[in-house]
């Protein structure tokens, strides 16, 4: 699951799971898998050499183990494994700054450790215009950034800007080949 805003792309390691389970799922293997997938998809989207940041799970990146061990035990080894494969990935970075850095262009995407860690910065910067993109499919799939909104379905009050953004992004992504080059669509 990636969420794309005007100037921020965020990919979530676990999607909709309780925070306690997300902590368990932020392991080296899962991080490596998501970084590889992010790199591949960004290339398909036309980013020639994707620069990927990985967010830390704990406050201040755990401060050398003071606030947790996941950064040293799982995240940093995953980043190193990806770098050994030649991927331009770095981190773990404290979540209170990495999204700002990415929104300013330092990174092409941020891999996030849990759902709300990813959604808060994207929605603060682009609510109503961000797009959810499902990664790893053999076709383009986009959706709105805010979920289904069943509570207002059929009432004529839904805001449509995120749907327009999702359709527009899907059309743009569908016009690229595997190398990210634009192709003509008749």
Main attributes?
6 helices, 7-stranded mixed beta sheet, Isopropylmalate Dehydrogenase, alpha/beta
Q: Numbering strands along the chain, what is their spatial order in the largest sheet?
A: 4-3-5-2-1-6-7
Helical proportion, percent range: 25-40%
Specify the number of helices: 6
Average pLDDT over all residues: 87
Number of strands: 7
What is the third-level CATH name, the topology of the domain at 2-127?
Answer: Isopropylmalate Dehydrogenase
User: How would you sum up the global shape?
Assistant: globular
Low-confidence stretches: none
Radius of gyration: 17 Å
User: Based on the structure given, which CATH architecture of the domain at 2-127 is correct?
Assistant: 3-Layer(aba) Sandwich
| Main pleated sheet | 7 strands, mixed
CATH homologous superfamily assignment of the domain at 2-127: Isopropylmalate Dehydrogenase
C-alpha termini separation: 29 Å
Q: Approximately what portion of the residues adopt beta-strand conformation?
A: 15-25%
Structural class: alpha/beta
Order of helices and strands: EEHHEHEHEHEEH
């Amino acid at each position: 699951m990636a969420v794309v805003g005007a100037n921020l792309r965020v990919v979530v390691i676990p999607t909709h799971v309780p925070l306690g389970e997300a902590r368990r799922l932020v392991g080296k293997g899962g991080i490596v898998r998501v970084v590889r997938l992010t790199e591949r998809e960004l290339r398909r989207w036309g980013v020639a050499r994707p620069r990927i940041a990985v967010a830390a799970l704990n406050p201040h990146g755990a401060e050398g183990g003071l606030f947790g061990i996941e950064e040293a035990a799982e995240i940093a080894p995953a980043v190193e494994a990806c770098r050994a494969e030649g991927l331009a990935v770095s981190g773990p970075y404290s979540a209170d700054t990495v999204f700002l850095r990415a929104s300013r262009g330092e990174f092409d995407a941020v891999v996030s450790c849990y759902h709300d860690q990813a959604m808060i910065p994207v929605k603060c910067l682009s609510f109503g215009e961000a797009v959810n993109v499902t990664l790893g499919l053999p076709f383009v799939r986009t959706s709105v950034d805010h979920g289904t909104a069943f509570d207002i379905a059929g009432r004529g009050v839904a805001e449509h800007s995120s749907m327009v953004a999702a359709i527009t992004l899907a059309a743009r992504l569908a016009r690229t080949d595997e190398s990210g080059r634009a192709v003509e669509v008749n």
